[in-house]
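Lab notes, practical 5.
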Amino acid sequence: MNIKSTHKVIKEYYSEIRKLKKLDQDNEGAVSPFFANILRFYARQFKWTLIEQYSTIGYRNSTIRPDGAIVDGYKLVHGFWEAKDTKDDFELEIKKKIENGYPTDNIIFQTPDRIIIYQNRLFVQDINISAPENLIFALKIFFEYQPPEYIEWKQAVDEFKIKIPELAQSLMQIIEREYKTNKTFRKVFIDFEELCKDSINKNLRRESINEMLIQHLLTERIFRKIFHNPDFRNNNTIAAEIEKVILALTSKYFSRTDFLKKLDRFYYAIEHTAELIKDYSQKQDFMNTVYENFFQGFSVKVANTHGIVYTPQPIVDFMVNSVQDILQIEFNKSLSDENVHILDPFVGTGNFILRVMKEVMKTSLQKKYDEELHCNEVMLLPYYISSMNIEHLYFELTGKYKPFKGICLVDTFELAEEAQHILDFMNKENTDRINKQKGSPITVIIGNPPYNANQVNENDNNKNRKYPALDKKIHDTYAKDSKATLKSKLFDPYIKAIKFASERIEENGVVAYISNNSFIKDFTFDGMRKHLFEGFNRIYIIDLQGDIRKDSMKDGIPLGEKHTVFGLSAMVGVSITFLIKNTNLKDRKIFYNTVDFRATRNEKFEMLEKVRTYHNMHWKELIPDENNNWLNEDIQEDFKTFLPMGTKETKNSDVLNVKSIFKYYSLGVSTNRDYVVYDFNKDDLEDRIIQLCDDYNNEVTRYENTKKGNDFNIDEFVNYEKIKWSSTLKNHCKRGEKIEYDEDRIESSLFRPFTKQNLYYDNILIDRPGHFREYLPNEEKERENKIIFVSGIAHKKQFQCLMVNKITSLDFLEKSQCFPFYVYKKDGSKRTENITDWSLEKFRNHYQAADITKWDIFYYIYAALHNTDYREKYSANLKRELPRIPFYENFQALSEFGKQLSEIHLNYENADEYTLEMIETPDTKLDWNVIKMRLSKDKTELKYNDFLTLNCIPEEVYQYKLGNRSALHWIIDQYRIKTDKVSGITHNPNNHDDQQYIVRLIKKIVTVSLESVRIVGEIDKFEL
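Output from the prediction step:
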């Protein structure tokens, strides 16, 4: 343990103690924050956390609340801390705490001048800490103590992180072997497979069924032992069904007992460690973490499909408290009242239902438990865990065990489908439960819907399932009334969850969800906002922020995992939403509250704990505008008076001289396989594409030969090992379209700002090639044409634009839209100016200048889009629609600055090299290769590699930004060796034919940035 008296946290402690003593204020409340800082600081060395005011169950089974607990990532407590006043009778206070059940496994009792430590239930040390070296001695004793069970647990964790996936794979092979050779098992397995497909998902793959069996085999012992339920296999209706398959699996050669002996030590470590935890809720936390770290590891696809994240307790408490208040205020009811049916559609491990049970009066609990609590789970392990948790809590609250019949193993979205009623759901008991739930009048829907957005990787063959009836309802409402071009996000699982709840809730009831917050203000969800406003009388939204990609480096502030309520599980913006239907209310209102985007997770939790319920919050009423914007206070009304750069209507019109500045525009190239079709190295790209063409053509041939007379799903057919598939590539395969490699299709492309890569531009291998054959049909036209790229609709970062003359990626900026000056036929003939005569007339009339040309307008637009006041004032408008261009004073001067800016951006590789100091590391050989560059904290130095550092970078460089990054940051991010985790493909930016290219590029980008800052400064002097 690294601890020194010179550490800032130690010095601050003694400095503050001295100040407080002089003021006679050295009491517990004044001193404890500084001692807490010490504990917090040194806990980080072990990757532990100090949780202050830690509530738990003591040795006498009573609730205790020490001042702090040191907790690890598995929620295991490594030590307690209790602070006392100097004026207290220290020994007497300690005696009282111990008698009240305070654990003495490892606890530190502390006053400003003294520490007493108990370990292993024995007194260990009484230390005067007036001197720093004594404090250090005491802290080492406290932090370095580990009970034998924890040492054993740590060893088991380290060993089985590797072993469990291996064992799971072995089980997978055994199941596959038995399926081929064991007739008894194969028959039972096929019956079970059909049952699962009918019950859960008709497209369920055999691999997923295998995973269910593996999960059951590896975990059912834990549920029996840790939760003291020896009859778990028989008591749980789903476990009993799976046991039939397991018994068939073990009917021949496979021995469950012998196989699982390899895990005995791990099971024992889990069981023994769990027994040390007295508080049942903390035992649940421990098991949740064990599940996430180990048993979910071989079911990543299932986890990704359902977007699993677990809801922190402060959020659960706040939501349940709020629902209780809403029922009282709106309906004069409570969670305890008869006929208040409560549904958690995505129960996970049961947090919401457990908290509801604690809120219900004990006199009402039996009826609520038997008849009015409902929940669904589609994944096996969470289903098991939640069943056990709910049943155990009922036992704790009532003193008697009763199986919980309100939980169903079912896909909630399946319940919205019109044809599902004909199916049996796993077995008769599960089906009866589902039918009972469907017939119940639901008053409260509460929970945490699935979070994932679109499937990231088609090769997972793990698409979010389509639900025809539910999808049609979304299509006919949210999508139909949306003005967005891209509407795929309206079919994300959390949107389906909101639609399901909107349809399922009774006339008088409440929906309480914590979900992705993008529906609040993103352009795509305008139609959804319209229908939510029309469908509910009151909407309350607490915006917990946390969109790291959007907000990090906003105002120069870096954000990370600690700013999200779900940590690494969901690095997206999150909100708590209450949707209320009340037939007694004739009006409709929306209320909004938000935290600061810089707030940490703990600060958000503290806020929720402090207010306790929605009723204690300060609300701002939102008034939807004509475009169904709710957060419209930043929308500038004069924006609509400016000239549109382009619109969907004018782009699709048959008329050439439309009422917009540009006739045509389009998205950047969307490949859906960037790592495959882009590369810095042309030879590497060529080899990869040749192999890909062969592999793809073989799949086309195989499909053609197999499909005759067969009707099967292309998703199930294709081989995912060699090809990075996408939906469009599968369609090309189905149509029998083959690829012939052509080296002329390798073209120089802009992948990211100031970052050129080679691209294999092919209409089959590129998912959505865009219109670049009409904008840049050949190299000659690249020299002739220019394209303004801008951030597209619903972008989240700061608005950005850049002039290009290369094929450019969709993610070049953000949701990039491009506006070319010229449009051609695909063979390069028939050049047409893309700026309309209508806009030319508008500019000439406004400025009373007949000599204005379309090129003048083009450069004027580029200047206007860089105006700082324009970007800041109209930032909200720019997120909702494409840019509109105002009339600034002095058109020609502004157009000239736009031309200068475009020239330096287009020709950045020809810019002068800025003079940077090149510092060579002594005794290190000459090396121009980059692995990963790093800036110093003050950003004046760039460590290029172990050999070379570039110094004296001007501060102004960072003022020129594209999105949230400076141009130099883009170079640092892109020019490094990267390996794609999925494909294993490595991109290496080092150019062996021009080894100093990257160093020269850095110097040129410094020049480009400084010159851009200068020109933008001139542009900013112009006013509307």
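Observations recorded by the TA: Residues 300-308, 453-462 have pLDDT under 50 and may be disordered. The two ends are 63 Å apart (CA to CA).
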